Amino acid sequence: MDAERMAELLDRHEFKQLKEELESMHPVDIVDAFEELDKKQRTLVFRLLAKEEAAEVFTDMNSDMREDLINALTDSELEEVMDEMYVDDTVDVLEEMPANVVDRLLMATDEDTRQKINALLQYPEDSAGSIMNIEYISLRKEMTVADAILKIRQVGINKETIYTCYVTEKKKLIGMVDVKDLLTAGESRKIEEIMDENVLYARTLDDQEHVANMINKYGLVAIPIIDHEDCLVGIVTVDDAMLVLQDETTEDMSMMAGVSPDDDSYFESSVFQQAKNRTPWLMIMMLSSTVSGEILGYYENAMAVMPVLITFIPMLMGTGGNCGSQISTLMIRGLAVGEIEFKDIFRVIFKEIRVALIVGTLLAIVNGIRICLMYDWNIMLALALGITMIAVVIMAKCIGCVLPLAAKKIGLDPAIMAAPLITTILDTCTILVYFNIVTVFFGL
């Protein structure tokens, strides 16, 4: 069912039919349809949803849609929604809302939930603690399998995941056991007999991207989070990890394009916000380009003697920039997924020099043939441009791989050293290499 169908049923006051059709829709699809409805229609449809489905739809909405809905719902309706939401989802919602809306949402939660929310809000932004869920199933090692299954039946409905249960002793994590192992083991067996003591875990202050990559690397449904005292305090589930990786990828893509990251989507952010995000990088790159202009001015006499030299500058700068962008993109991706680390820097440089020699030689040969055909077989010019091309490609590959690795090493986001910045650096270096080579060849 799409937004048009929803609006049609609302106009005809066929609420029973609309409610039946909503039951077969996925919450994400409902949110997509909501984007095409007005505030009044959205509220009417939301009130027809079952409590659990309403909570999921509310979680998947964007911040503007949530705020409109909060203002339209009564306190009792809002309380029902909040009761059905998991604590980590509630925290995500609160972090995006204005202070007056946050106050109303907190009023709609019970005292125990408010304490859990406040505990999560105290962790640093982008840490594992800030995205973890404190609703997990904890077992004791002396419990029997039958006792464990009974506990899952009693409390599992309120937990975000029951597929993996964690074994604790005095709140310290000592093992884990999958539901599959519980269902296939004898009911009288002890948990300590079937639990896995080799547990992968993360700490509350670990970076959320690191935790998400661990879940992705090891194919986990969830990963336990422990505090500085080695006590189990929560879990990060795979759905939260996917959101983290999505956000980090969006941030990296923005920075690679020379745009400051923004939490809002393209259409949600204002024209002035978009201008603010883009201007600083453009300003930096524009001012840094003045260095290239000064270098060109220094070689003004050489260009006056051989004006043809000017015509090759855009080609060389473009080739260098493209080569740098290629390898920097591969480096940023490799660093993001853990394929490449700073300790691999010399292996990477050695490999890229070999790649650059092959690529540069092929480009130099093709360009040399073009110069011979267009400039009366001027072999010296073709040779000078060929050597310059190889040198520029090697330089671009080395700079393009070293800068992201160096940024990661000193704690900066490798995406900062992406296409725009590397291209600007390479433009200056290319001009220096080019004119030094042609000066030697032609004695200018």
Automatic annotation (TrEMBL):
Family recorded in the similarity comment: Belongs to the SLC41A transporter family.
Species of origin: Candidatus Mediterraneibacter faecavium
Residue ranges occupied by any CBS domain in the UniProt entry: 132-193, 195-251
Topology of this chain in the membrane: Multi-pass membrane protein
Protein name from the UniProt record: Magnesium transporter MgtE
Signal sequence extent: none
TM regions (residue ranges): 353-373, 379-406, 418-442
Alphabetized UniProt keyword annotations: CBS domain, Cell membrane, Magnesium, Membrane, Metal-binding, Transmembrane, Transmembrane helix, Transport
Protein's UniProt keywords contain Transmembrane: yes
GO MF term (any one): metal ion binding
GO cellular component: plasma membrane
Superkingdom to which the source organism belongs: Bacteria
Main location: membrane
Pfam families named in the record: CBS (PF00571), MgtE (PF01769), MgtE_N (PF03448)
Lineage: Bacteria, Bacillati, Bacillota, Clostridia, Lachnospirales
